From TrEMBL:
SUPFAM superfamilies: Molybdenum cofactor-binding domain. One of its GO terms (molecular function) is iron ion binding. This is Xanthine dehydrogenase. Pfam families: MoCoBD_1 (PF02738), MoCoBD_2 (PF20256). Keywords: 2Fe-2S, Iron, Iron-sulfur, Metal-binding, Molybdenum, Oxidoreductase. Residues 1-222 form the Aldehyde oxidase/xanthine dehydrogenase first molybdopterin binding domain. InterPro entries: Ald_Oxase/xanthine_DH-like (IPR016208), AldOxase/xan_DH_MoCoBD1 (IPR008274), AldOxase/xan_DH_MoCoBD2 (IPR046867), AldOxase/xan_DH_Mopterin-bd_sf (IPR037165). Residues 247-503 form the Aldehyde oxidase/xanthine dehydrogenase second molybdopterin binding domain. Belongs to the xanthine dehydrogenase family. Its cofactor is FAD; Mo-molybdopterin; [2Fe-2S] cluster. Gene3D superfamilies: Aldehyde oxidase/xanthine dehydrogenase, molybdopterin binding domain (3.30.365.10). It comes from Candidula unifasciata.
Amino acid sequence: AMATAPHVVSGTVRCNDQYNFHLENQAALCIPTDTGGMDIMATTQWQDTCIETVSQILGIPESRISVETQRLGGGFGGKIYYNAPVCGMAALAAYVTNRPVLMNLDLHTNMQSQGKRTHYVFEYQVGFDDDGRIIAIVATGYGDVGALLFNKGDEYTVGYIDNVYNIPNFKWTVQPVKTNKPVSTAVRAPGTAPAIYGMECMIDHVATYLKKDHLQVRKLNLMQDGDTTLAGVVLEHCLIKDVVAQLEAQVNIAQRLQAVSDFNKNNRWRKRGFHVMPNRYAMVWEGRFYTTSIYVNHGDGSVHICHGGVDMGQGINTKAIQCCAYKLGIPMDLITVKPTSTIVNTNSKYSAGSTTTGLVCLAILKCCEDLLERLAPSKAKLVNPSWREIIKQAYLDVVDLRAHYMPQIKDKYPSEHYSSWGACTAEVELDVLTGQYQITQVDYLNDTGTSLNPQLDIGQLEGGFIMGLGLFLTEGFKFDPMTGQLLTDGTWEYKPPLGKDLPINFNVKFMRNVPNPTGVLGSKIVGEAPVSTGACVLFALKRAVEAARAEQNNTDWFPFHAPATVESIQTACLNDLAQYTFGN
């Protein structure tokens, strides 16, 4: 297929590491018990790994160890595995001294010892026709796994590398690369955000080569129902064309592009860029499970929930209470969520990938259905009873006022339960001489199904997008080339986005009247998808750099690696100005 393509381009781009910048570092409090066990309070996203680690180190059965997590001050994937050694060290010290031991890492130690997002280098060839329709892609992703071959360098990339584009012939290979760095770990949208960025770089190269409008080339290649993704998913309910069309009308893209063009004609040292980026994020449920229980107290009818998910700011407990109140028909203030504990929630999977909230809510709905079925005979004995009256009667009838459920989901495809669709526009203003810029406006339209809580979902979308800005623009690492030691281990050298990095105008909207037929109460989860869309701002900056280079008669394609820091942007602008006489 590549041999038949009228045009072929090739290139190399990279997407660097990123640190899980959780404000609360790794910590564990270990307290020996009088039975030779250990009670642990841990800042972990996966309690089972902590139990297994401590059990192996101390040589005691896992049944003697309990782990409790009330909530996390941020996780972003960094506390799935890397909290386990902290628990292990603290537990060993507690075991030897027979005293409680608290271990709380400082920021520098946390950044030095913890692995980062997998660093990818993408090499590609793209074949396409005169209009920009892609015929074939041959691409390789080199994944920096660190010192151990842990994730094989492939963090679900096959499910995301084609993003929203129908590529009829696609050969994708992942090559793991071992380096003398800590073992890479999951960071919000692991592998997926870099993969989507890699695909966007490829189609960006095509549009630049043909000197065609970038949005039109993307629209020409968009997926539709019936298309098959690289991962073998036959698409149903594909909304990407609807999302892009609605966003085009909503923000008047043609007028915005013309305004940017006029500004660039009238300004030599300041340039604006405008870009539109569509996005698809496949959600996977299979292999994720969280033990969930509901208990009703007979005295006042209040309810408490115990589930295997970990609240780390994503609002899982709020949505859990909402679903329980909705299904039981009781006020939310009657319901409490207890801290996650292995005493009642053992054998739960890690809380990650934006799947936990949906599956915990699903389990709660199932528990409520079980309870309501058991309460029905007691309710039938009463006339128009209140919830409290039903519970008191059920207690007298010796009804078990507990319910338990663990989801065991079998996805139709191994790499997808459903897809979430979105599109984003970004406009920036760039100082050509310094490389500094401002994000003047971002407009984001997202398919969230029927949102269970729009305020939480908008917060998740905005937060994920800003984390994407860090990945693609500001968070650059430096390592010692001989030892692999991290040289940028604090905020003096490592720069996550702060207040002045935010868009001046940030407009977020959800698609309306598009319930998800395979989601919980028609919903979709939004925590991971927006991270990749942070690349939209990188490409808007690239448009501004292209405008500056064009005035030096340079319209050639150039790689724009992530993160596109101020220094690299300045270099891209000024390379063509080396012989410019500023006195003139």
